[in-house]
Specification:
There is one protein chain. The chain is α/β, with parallel strands linked by helices. The chain contains 9 helices and 5 strands, in the order βαβαααβααβααβα. It has one domain: P-loop containing nucleotide triphosphate hydrolases (Rossmann fold). Strands 2-3-1-4-5 form a 5-stranded parallel sheet. Helix 2 runs antiparallel to helix 3. The protein is globular.
């Protein structure tokens, strides 16, 4: 029988550096003999493409509709018959996702949507094996966002990111669907953060 793969999720504020750490984590896991698939939310699928249009300001929807779009995109992300996460895991591959359910719970709650309702519409979501939260100060995130892009995206606002950070903290104090939770500081160079991420993950794996 094929051994099930592990589902690893990277979480953090916009600008926290999760995309950079995702690539580094794949290299580290591949070097240890694991077959690794990278994925992200919103996805590149049809629903994820609509979400990206909203994030870029090309479409406008209310916050509750945005929460529903994320939940629908997540269901497709997990259960799509072609490349869904659950199929990848059953095939023995590790899946590393840049964002997942916690992002919905934190971001949607920060925009005024009831967190319990957001949890309810994501009830089918598979709990990850491990969630790595890259904890980066809002001011640092905003500086990184300004350096990498001049686009004014929906969630790239200081006041909102501060509310999101507070929502993440509330989630960590509750029974949130994180699997094993690892928190690492996101300040410093990308290599320094990678060292923290892989060190903590290796400790969890007993490597």
């Amino acid at each position: 029988m094929t051994t099930r793969g592990r589902f690893v999720v990277l979480e953090g504020l916009d600008g926290a550096g999760t995309s950079t750490q995702q690539a580094a984590l794949r290299a580290w896991l591949a070097g240890r003999g694991h077959e690794v698939e990278l994925t992200r939310e919103p996805t590149d699928g049809p629903i994820g493409s609509v979400i990206r249009q909203v994030l870029l300001g090309r479409l406008t929807v209310d916050p509750a509709t945005m929460a529903l779009l994320f939940a629908a995109d997540r269901t497709d992300h997990l259960f799509n018959a072609v490349d869904g996460v659950t199929g990848q895991l059953e095939a023995g591959r590790w899946v590393v996702s840049d964002r997942y359910v916690l992002s919905s719970l934190a971001y949607q709650a920060a925009t005024g949507v009831d967190r319990a309702w957001v949890a309810a519409i994501n009830a089918r979501a598979v709990v990850p094996d491990v969630t790595i939260y890259v904890e980066t100060p809002v001011e640092v995130c905003l500086e990184r966002i300004a350096r990498r892009s001049s686009r004014d995206e929906l969630y790239h606002k200081g006041d909102l990111l501060r509310r999101v950070a507070a929502e993440y903290e509330r989630l960590f104090e509750s029974v949130a669907p994180t699997g094993h939770l690892i928190r690492v500081p996101g300040t410093g160079s990308p290599d320094e953060v990678t060292g923290r991420v892989v060190g903590a993950l290796a400790e969890w794996l007993g490597a």
